[in-house]
TrEMBL record:
GO terms for molecular function: 6-phospho-3-hexuloisomerase activity. This is 6-phospho-3-hexuloisomerase. Keywords: Isomerase. SUPFAM superfamilies: SIS domain (SSF53697). It holds the Pfam family SIS. The keyword Cell wall biogenesis/degradation does not apply. CDD domains: SIS_PHI. PANTHER family: 3-HEXULOSE-6-PHOSPHATE ISOMERASE (PTHR43443:SF1). NCBIfam families: RuMP_HxlB. It comes from the Bacteria. Its EC number is 5.3.1.27. It comes from Oceanobacillus longus. Residues 29-171 form the SIS domain. Belongs to the SIS family. PHI subfamily.
């Protein structure tokens, strides 16, 4: 298969995956973000990179986001929200964060391929991305290696959450651009 053919198949996989997602849970996430004082995001590996991109867009729309593990991340409090992106939902460090967040009384959202994971029962909001998890290998859900389909879907999902937030708050690109980094 040639490069463009692979690209077309990746786009088809993304389309099939996103069509199967639950919009009601996504709407709960948008509403929870509007209510939260501060929003924390976490993920390991490539999921963590998607979380960082999401945090940047949240800042652009005027929210108060933080990436767990960064040196300037403040403490999590009861009126805050933690959003975890984890394909497996089983990563021990993320489980520990989820347990801590719920013990403090913060809202927990999980975006995962595994709705029966150990983190899932802790989450007030659970969004399933029905994609191949990296441990599934050649499950037939994707031609892509490991968790690529999940991670790509995660980024698109996070961007769609931002679009819905913008719609609800009647925000536009020019508003966001005003918060864009200017020391570059």
């Amino acid at each position: 298969m040639q490069t463009i053919a692979y690209t077309k198949e990746i786009l088809a996989e993304l389309s099939r995956t996103i069509e199967r997602m639950d919009d009601a849970e996504a709407e709960k996430l948008v509403d929870g973000m509007q209510r939260a004082n501060k929003i924390f995001v976490a993920g390991s590996g490539r999921s963590g990179l998607m979380a960082k991109a999401f945090a940047m867009r949240m800042m652009h729309v005027g929210l108060d986001p933080y990436v767990v593990g960064e040196t300037i991340t403040p403490n999590l409090e009861a009126n805050d929200m933690l959003i975890i992106g984890s394909g497996s939902g089983e990563t021990k460090s993320l489980l520990s964060m989820a347990e801590k967040a719920t013990s403090i009384g913060a809202s927990l959202a999980l975006v995962t391929t595994n709705p029966t994971s150990v983190i899932a029962p802790l989450a007030a909001i659970m969004i399933e991305i029905p994609a191949q998890a990296k441990a599934e290998g050649t499950s037939g859900k994707s031609i892509q290696p490991m968790g690529s389909l999940y991670e790509q879907s995660l980024l698109l999902f996070y961007d769609s959450i931002i679009l819905r937030f913008m719609e609800k708050k009647e925000l536009h690109n020019d508003t966001m651009y005003g918060r864009h980094a200017n020391l570059e």
